[in-house]
Amino acid sequence: MAVITLQFPPECLQTLRNHPRLREIASGRASGRALRCAYFAVAGLGPGGVIVRVVRNGGRYRQSVVREGAVVFSGPAADETPALDTILDPTLREQMNGAGVLMPAFRHEARVFRRPVTLNGTPGATIEIEDGTLSAEEGERPYGVLRIRSSDDDLAPAYALAAELAGEVPLRIAPRNPEELGFALAAAAKPTPVKADKRPLPDETTVEEALVHIVRACLDHLVANEAPTLENDDPEGVHQMRVALRRMRSGLRLYRHMLPAGQYEGLVAELKWVTAALGPTRDLDVFLDEILAPVAAGLPDAAPLETLRELCREARDEARAATREAVSSSRYGRFVIDMHRWVERRSWREQPVTETAATLFRPAAVLGAEALHKSYRQVRKRGRVFADLPPDERHRLRIGVKRLRYALDFFGSLYRAKAVREFTERLSRLQDDLGYANDVSVAHRLLDQLQARAEGSRKAAARYAGALVLGWHQHALSEIEEKVIADIESFLDEKTFWPKPQREA
Predict the structure, then answer these.
(1) 291: pLDDT strictly greater than 70
(2) Alpha-carbon distance 489 to 505, whole Å?
(3) What's the CA gap between 160 and 155, in Å, rounded?
(4) SS in 3 state form for 124-156?
């Protein structure tokens, strides 16, 4: 049995419970139960350490010792207070008594509604709607969770149901369970951004299996950074969401000729929409932290720079609010659910069997070699004449370097680790060089926008500060031009490690 977990706004509870689709697929009587738990932990420890959970069921209590996510002891308790002396294992009892003072962490109270359903004509599935509240000294947090459990390992029908329900209820994939949310509340901890997990491809993976692998990894990366974007002002959350989207788009681009007509364009259209919703916030974060900050540090007495900083922060706050609105929207939630459904259904199979479609069942190593070779060839073509390239061609070179980097991330596990690591390190230096030039290019556009926002004396100050900023960075770019050219030449002189594609061998 497999399960997907989604979250919904608590105020949508009745709309979800009374959804006509759930009545249509019901295959048995609904049941409900109350959940009351108290969590205790040694100070400083969270869900990854040792905790004691006391559950009240009716008038009875049961305590469990949980270590690294696994229950290592469970037994009755007299009340809500942990009783370590009842632990049967003497070693565990001694460890618990010596670990430190157990302190109340949080309380978890919920109502759980459960109903058997038939998914895609197959009985044995269930839906579970949990409406709960987490409370700690720091405050309370209501939440709503929907779990759809299939009768087997096929999640496609579950995602199809989620997509239907999302038409009326703003559902989204839940990256954290209530227990994790409870410990975060107890610690007053903001969610932290997460970098991409470079998961190796399994041995003897096909092109199709690699597509599933790539899209799932990118979706996990995207969803993991939603909470940091919505609840945290750390610029890295938005940045990592953008990275996840660009990686996904780059991965899909490798498959565009293998997908049915219209599928690729439809997926990319939604990817572009989400990326565009994040773009202004990311651009202004970079401008503040990497373009304006070093100039302000070097010229601390330049008052117009502070005016420009104020204008930028005002614009960034507006952009961040718009980003959060988009990420909180029903459209975004449906986009993520639909991407999961597309993968689980293997929707690309809905096409005639052609020679192009049949390439999905080749070894992934074949596609990997083709992708790396093509991206490298494009980088090499422009890199060899970098000194003479106009700005738009240098931008295309930067995009080519990114695509090559993502192809390495996707298929690098198929090759020798040392060769991939060394090649990636050289490519990363080049990516940083070209990324800085792009940030300065974007700064030109942002300065025009910021100056247009200003009025009166602020407009003159912003114009003067903008000239300082651009002059500073144009000088810096001219100083590193020779280094960039040398880095490109060094990179292109190195031998590649992947085999030449079969059609060019």
Answers:
(1) yes
(2) 25
(3) 9
(4) EEEEEEEEEEEEECCEEEEEEEEEEECCCCCCH
Main-chain phi, psi angles of 126, to 5 degrees: -140, 155
* Predicted local distance difference test score (pLDDT) of residue 505: 44
Spatial distance between the Cα atoms of 434 and 428, rounded to a whole number of angstroms:
10
pLDDT band at residue 100, thresholds of 50, 70 and 90? Answer: low
Q: What's the pLDDT score for residue 438?
A: 94
Q: Which residue has the tokens 């809905």?
A: 350
Q: What residues contact residue 38 under an 8 Å CB cut-off, 6+ apart?
A: 53, 54, 56, 80, 104, 107, 108
User: Which residue in this structure is represented by tokens 């931008």?
Assistant: 395
Q: What is the DSSP string of 64-123?
A: EEEETTEEEEEEEESSSS--GGG-S-HHHHHHHHHH--EEEEEEEEEEEEEEEEEETTEE
Residue pair 307/461 in contact (Cβ under 8 Å)? The answer is yes
Give me the chain's average pLDDT, please.
Answer: 92
Distance (Å) of CA 203 to CA 206, 207, 209, 356, 420: 9, 12, 11, 23, 17
pLDDT tens profile 43-93: 544 555 678 999 998 889 999 988 777 888 898 888 988 888 888 888 887
Given a contact cutoff of 8 angstroms between Cβ atoms, the answer to whether 191 and 184 are in contact is yes
| 441-402-383 Cα angle (round to 5) | 75
* pLDDT at residue 115 in the model: 95
| C-alpha to C-alpha distance for 330 and 321, rounded to whole angstroms | 16
Task: Compute the average pLDDT of residues 165-182.
Answer: 92
Which token pair is 102?
A: 């157990």
| Helix pair angle (235-253, 263-286), 10° resolution | 150
Q: Which domains does the chain have, with CATH numbers?
A: 364-504 (1.40.20.10)
Q: Are 126 and 117 in contact (CB under 8 A)?
A: yes
Note whether 134 and 141 are within 8 A (CB): yes
Amino acid at 295: V
